């Protein structure tokens, strides 16, 4: 679907920029050993993890083949309120297909959904439900909140002709989805989340699953939040440090792929490709700093999310009013449980993973 307002877009990184990245990587000097002897993973990802990814980026990774994969689906640019929004739009053939807005978080990107957008729009079984898949890139600007993003994404769906749609979201995308599912209920009709920070009622006895995910969440908050503290307080400092530093981007963003996913998934060849593609996208688009502004812009105002995740969802004005599904992934950053999540919305579906 195109119009004067919606322009086709093709990912085409200039050859000189690809070569420059390769040159910068070849000129990078790694320490050659753990800086702290026997550090393991106590100080962050292991040195061996970093070295393996570096070698794969230099010797094996082919940006052009990944770029060709990206261009197998239609990309577009449209200006909404003077902001250019990039998005993937994969339409299904079925006249009964459901419009589905998929919203990524950090350090993800539109590519986060690359393994499923064709499967959702063109399922192998004709009897399965199909979807018109819309995957925008999250905007990041000074003074721009996730509520602004929700407003823009609702306008995007309507511009595409979808006056009613469903939403899939996680991480920071959850707060975009929560805004849509609480304030835009005439258009957002259903939402599924794989992140929904929430708290159990006081005084309840925890189930075994609730004990497990509480331990996971406590460990995350205690030992893995340094990146978030930095980005929500000094985004310019880390943003400039990472801007033209591919190995820095790899460590900063790749760490989350290392810490917030099932270890078994990380053994799959695609996992290395996913991390290197994410780092390459941030490098080529010069948007590593804009991408982290959500941590700063949503932490210090009257509707702050970042300091009050669990409390935020319990406020009546933020309650999800449409049908709400949640899948609890143990290895996500802050997995929750049915009894906690159902306090924040009209929960009709729940699954433990």
TrEMBL record:
<protein>
    <submittedName>
        <fullName>Epoxide hydrolase</fullName>
    </submittedName>
</protein>
<dbReference type="Pfam" id="PF06441">
    <property type="entry name" value="EHN"/>
</dbReference>
<dbReference type="InterPro" id="IPR016292">
    <property type="entry name" value="Epoxide_hydrolase"/>
</dbReference>
<comment type="similarity">
    <text>Belongs to the peptidase S33 family.</text>
</comment>
<feature type="domain" description="Epoxide hydrolase N-terminal">
    <location>
        <begin position="6"/>
        <end position="113"/>
    </location>
</feature>
<dbReference type="GO" id="GO:0097176">
    <property type="term" value="P:epoxide metabolic process"/>
</dbReference>
<dbReference type="InterPro" id="IPR029058">
    <property type="entry name" value="AB_hydrolase_fold"/>
</dbReference>
<keyword id="KW-0378">Hydrolase</keyword>
<dbReference type="GO" id="GO:0004301">
    <property type="term" value="F:epoxide hydrolase activity"/>
</dbReference>
<dbReference type="InterPro" id="IPR010497">
    <property type="entry name" value="Epoxide_hydro_N"/>
</dbReference>
